[in-house]
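Quick one: structure for this chain?
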Amino acid sequence: MADDPYKVLGVARDASDEDIRRAYRKLAKELHPDLNPSNRAVAEERFKKVSAAYDIVGDPEKRGKYDRGEIDANGEPRRTYQRAYSGGRAGGGRPGEEFGFGDIFSDLFGRGRESGPFSAAMRGRDVRYTLEVDFLEAATGAKKRVTMPEGGVLDITVPEGVADGQTLRLKGQGAPGLRSSEPGDALVEIKVRPHPLFKRAGDDILLELPITIDEAVLGAKIEVQTISGRVQLTLPKGTSSGRVFRLKGKGVRNTTTGGIGDQLVTVRIVMPDAIDSELSYFMSEWRQKHRYNPGR
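Got it. Here's what it folds into:
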């Protein structure tokens, strides 16, 4: 039978959840197979036992059932078996004596349940992590190497166009399985840091572009920053503040469809820091001859 999970983790039965979590992380870091290349087999076996123990007492519901005797150290329900004999009660045992199925097969075959016919492989637990990436890393893709709480290293390929809050599933990168079964997966939630210029709306990139009064009146060719570099935008004469220009294919790639969004550039006319006498005189003269109503 599996060892008492409290003893495996080296904690008292009345230990707090935080104490149990701290003990597990310490042992998992010490015993991770990747950190013990010279004694990998032994470390892997102990690592599996520690992970299995934490799977029981690290889960409040399972811990309660284990403490009440409803499940055993393998997480399986405890069942009772009354030995029968002719005439009513157990000939070799006490009336009503209870035995787990593991004990029965231990009697029959001379071995514990871990190697008996009721042994079962157990897939490793999925583990969850959060990864913060820059806006441009999420938009254009990146490769990141992170250190896990247990001490291992995880290489993550951030796909082009990944969105804030999206979860990446890394097959086989979770906790090792029991009895040579497959490991669990690593579930990595992506958190995207904001960018000082860009915002994202679906697959489109939004950018607010300040322009001068003369560029708005006379038109201009100006450089605009995109997530993939700088491009030239032509402003026609008489461009109003708030006008939106669409740069086709300059958005982010959709991770599902593979399509690429656009960049939407909203221009904003910015007045000079100081209005000199020349500009004031020109505008006053212009207004007398060309007054217009913009729709107010």
